[in-house]
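so my prof wants the structure for this chain in the tokens format not the other one, which i didnt know existed until like an hour ago. anyway here's the sequence
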Amino acid sequence: MHGLRSLITQPQSPTAGVPPHTCQLSGLIIVPSTNYSAGPVATIPQSSWADTVNTRILSPILTVQAFLPLLTLRSNSKTVVFAYPSISSSLSAPFAGPEVATSRAISGFAASLRQELRLLEQGNVDVVELRLGNIDLGPTYRHGQSQVAGTEVLAWSTQQRALYGSQYLSSVEQRPVASAGPSAVRGSPARNLHYAILDALEPRSRGMFGQKTSKKTVMYVGRGARSYSLIGNWVPSGLVALMMGYRSGSTMGSHSP
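here's what i got, hopefully its the right format
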């Protein structure tokens, strides 16, 4: 942090003969890991929940806290960008508790931070959420997922398999997109994410009278991000469950011998 502070407060000369200049901090990009434990809450170990909270919720918050003195040091326009998967959280998807909890927590923190930074006199730090859908990051990333979806059921107890097994395996088959992007679902090109990050970091434009225009606080990037957000907000949860192939407990009970 001391080195970064020096870069943005003291003139720097990259090479001999080049006039010194002072660097600017344009923004901070927060991207929690997109790999989450999946399964019923009862089957996810406590250590996995603790890891999720510490590495995907607490670490981003502490990172922003550490950078705030630098972000508010000078008057140039800056942006804090939070990028996180949004499809499971938009649908409040079952068996995706860690991902849904993380996405909702990050979004809530971003909204609170946004309001807080607007109260500053300079008001030059924006907070932008990039809600990610399915993005194709290439074959190397897709093939890097070694575990076959659904095999985690083998590690459950007999009771857990009886209670959740069929429903969970059905959810794996019907899942619109996994956090990391399964190879069966081709997402938007990675360049779309690149362009979105550049747009988020771009300083606010000015209107015809010289006033600064508002920057988008939420941007949807990747296939399915916006559409599933609309579905989650406007379609009744019961209908969403039917669309995704889930069966309610009462329905399951009616077919029991």
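also thought this was worth mentioning. Residues 177-183, 250-257 have pLDDT under 50 and may be disordered.
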